[in-house]
Amino acid sequence: MSVIQLVAGRKYAILLMDQNSQYILVGSDRFPMRFVASAKTGADLADLNRVELKFSGKATFTSLFIDNPF
Length: 70
Known about the structure:
- By secondary structure, the protein is mainly beta.
- 9% of the residues lie in helices and 37% in strands.
- The protein has one helix and six strands.
- Strands 1-4-5 form a three-stranded antiparallel β-sheet. The protein has a three-stranded antiparallel β-sheet with strand order 2-3-6, with no helix packed on it.
- The termini are far apart.
């Protein structure tokens, strides 16, 4: 089983930093994010590993802004 197959079956909450350097928590136990991966051609600079990674999900509330978590 590849690493991609291993992580594809799980549910996630994602902590990310936006363009304004603010941290946002996306996803929860009730409304988790799901992981999807697909092979790419490698034509774009961001495609150097030739695997496109996406997280998606729906929630009934906005994401939470978190002060510096580190």
